[in-house]
Structures are given as structure tokens and as C-alpha cells.
Amino acid sequence: MILGIGVDIVHISRMREWQAKEALLARFFHPGELEDAQARGPRVTQSLAARFAAKEAYGKALGTGMRDLKLRDIRIINDVNGKPELRLYGTARERFDEIGGQSVFVSMTHERDSAIAVVVLEA
What we know:
- The chain has a single domain (2-122), classed as CATH 3.90.470.20.
- The longest helix has 19 residues, at 44-62.
- It is α+β, with helices and mostly antiparallel strands.
- It contains 5 helices and 5 strands; from the N terminus they run βααααββαββ.
């Protein structure tokens, strides 16, 4: 059973501005996530924008938005084939467990100026 669906779009230029502010990145991204994005070389900005969109989409899928969630408690990783997966920690895991969540699905993409993500939560 689907518990929630969320979608979000982020302008890549927003992430470009954030990259100059280490404290801001540390507030919104899991440390491992920042390492993964940096490994993408010239695509780091697009990668961060897509990951941020996925975090926002997760909050929308919960139905609560980002209230009582720490964004760095949501980590997006890629499997060996590049498929993105959400890993939930702390506040993000607590909210997921509260609604009876069993599975999380995420899809992300970016094109020119924008990054988009969709998250589906399933019981």
C-alpha cells in the first residue's frame, strides 16, 4: 500500500551558491553524501541539487514537510548500477517508522537548470 508520494524541483544555481557555504552543506547533507557528490567531479552541483530535491520530496511524501526532520538524517546513495536509494537515520527514520513505512523508492534527474526527485513511501 502506498503511504505517500512526494515530488520536488530545485534550481541548480541555488546549489552553486550553497557550495561556497560549508556550514550550510554540513547542515543539509550527510557527510558520506557530500563525499559521494564530490566524487562526481564536474557534476557535483547537479548531484547535490538532485539529492536536496529528494530530501524535500521525502518530507512531502511523509505529509509533514520538513517539520521535525533534520535533512542530514536523509542520505541518498547509489547502488553499483547507479540506482539511487534513500537511507534514513535519526529523525527521518523515526517519522518513517511512525507512519508504518516499509519501503522507500526514489527517482532523481537533472537537466540544465533544474533537478527533480520523486519519492514513494510504501507500507
